[in-house]
Amino acid sequence: MYNFNFHSPGTLDEAINLYNNSEDPKFLAGGMTLLASMKQRLISPSDLIDLRNISNLSEVSLNDKVLKIGSLCSHFKLSRNEIINDKIKNLAKLADGIGDPAVRKMGTIGGSIANSDPAADWPAAILALKSQIITNSRIISNKDFFTGMFETLLEDNEIITSIEIEIPDYFNYKKLPNPASRYAIVGVAIAKYGNNVNVAISGASHTPFIAETISDYLSNNFSNDFPEKTIAKDDLNEDIHASAEYRVNLIDVLTKQIINES
Amino acid sequence: MHEISVKITINQKDYERNIQPNTLLVDFLREELGLTGTHVGCDTSQCGACMVLHNKSAIKSCSILVAQLNKQEITTIENLQKDNELHPMQNAFRNNHGLQCGFCTPGMIMSAISLVNENSNPSEKDIRKYLEGNLCRCTGYQNIIKSIEEGAKDMKEPRITNV
């Protein structure tokens, strides 16, 4: 790992000031992807700005039907959080299936979303659920947030402070994990609000996306006779873990598993 | 790059050092303090040989900077034995032949203690799930699971309070 300057600001303003006055800085949350990438010399920031000493970024609260999750909450904390287990149990289960226990202790929801790994679990859930991403300067709709592989709408010096999620009538997430990394080969998140159903897919393409045809069908008829193979395989990843065709099939299989369980 | 000053408590001993910001915890433990019980297996956050305890939970010391742990506390495998007596989890590994080459063992034991801190009565399934982040290249998992089952029972009356 190349060397860098290290900062641990106590406030958001201080963090952004440090960012604006550094040559090629990076914000550091749990570091589960960033530090690994730095060790491999894939990136070499001039300055690391540790966000973990900023207060108020690791709380979970419920206001009427809106769940607010602080960006620096660890996956472990969210997997055990009482409000989440009470209101969206399968979201806590999603958190409990990320990486391994040590990774879940350090890794954060904000870091995962900002990193926008196409095979990560949170982005599919955020996309399926009615939600918005709150930053230090604005509110971004979940539909606009993920713009590409490891790309989001965030400005370089923008920090996610929380994620707001409207409690659904039903939510579930299932993935076929890569046995080594536990990243999703394909992951399917389904959120149901009345008759409105959103099906979001992770792991299958360069970015998480909404499976429109399946969502539309399930919104009218929440049953597993939805039309199959509606995602074009040309749009999906083909790699050593799975062919595109296999991923097309997995999307249908995981969707059916969720419907059967609901 | 600027050195930074860090205060860190390791195995109940306070250290204040000037370090390079890119110092990983595992390198600090092994190179600076000579605590070589914490192993480096893969160095890519896969194998778990470098597990240490932070707030009673196992974390991978190859994937955290000392700079991130300012004013915090870490426990390594060296601090488990007390008064010449093995920690119950260490003892259980010995009793059950829970190690072959032994390279993964410090990490396995730290993970096992972390598990019991969260769940004092883990099932075999709980143990297997918790070991997702620990690899044994000897593939001696059966006896590792047996060891942790016994160690968890023996830890129910904690002999030491800091882990």
Quick rundown:
The complex is a heterodimer of chains A (262) and B (163). Chain A is an alpha+beta fold. Chain A contains eleven helices and 14 strands.
Describe this structure in words.
The complex is a heterodimer of chains A (262) and B (163). Chain A is α+β, with helices and mostly antiparallel strands and 262 residues long. Chain A folds into 3 domains: 5-50, 2-Layer Sandwich (Uridine Diphospho-n-acetylenolpyruvylglucosamine Reductase, domain 2), CATH 3.30.43; 60-166, Uridine Diphospho-n-acetylenolpyruvylglucosamine Reductase, domain 3 (2-Layer Sandwich), CATH 3.30.465; 170-261, CO dehydrogenase flavoprotein, C-terminal domain (Enolase-like, domain 1). Chain A has helices at residues 12-20, 34-39, 75-80, 82-87, 89-95, 101-106, 109-115, 122-128, 142-145, 212-220, 244-261, and strands at residues 5-7, 25-28, 47-50, 60-63, 66-70, 131-135, 139-141, 146-148, 151-152, 160-166, 170-177, 184-193, 196-202, 209-210. A 5-stranded antiparallel sheet of chain A has the order 4-5-10-6-7. In chain A, strands 11-12-13-14 form a 4-stranded antiparallel sheet, sandwiched between helices. A 3-stranded parallel sheet of chain A has the order 1-3-2, with helices on one face. The longest helix of chain A is centred in the last third of the chain and has 18 residues, at 244-261. The relative contact order of chain A is 0.11. The model of chain A has no long low-confidence stretch (mean pLDDT 96). Chain B has a 5-stranded mixed sheet, covered by helices on one side. The model of chain B has no long low-confidence stretch (mean pLDDT 94). The interface between A and B is medium-sized, with 28 and 31 residues.
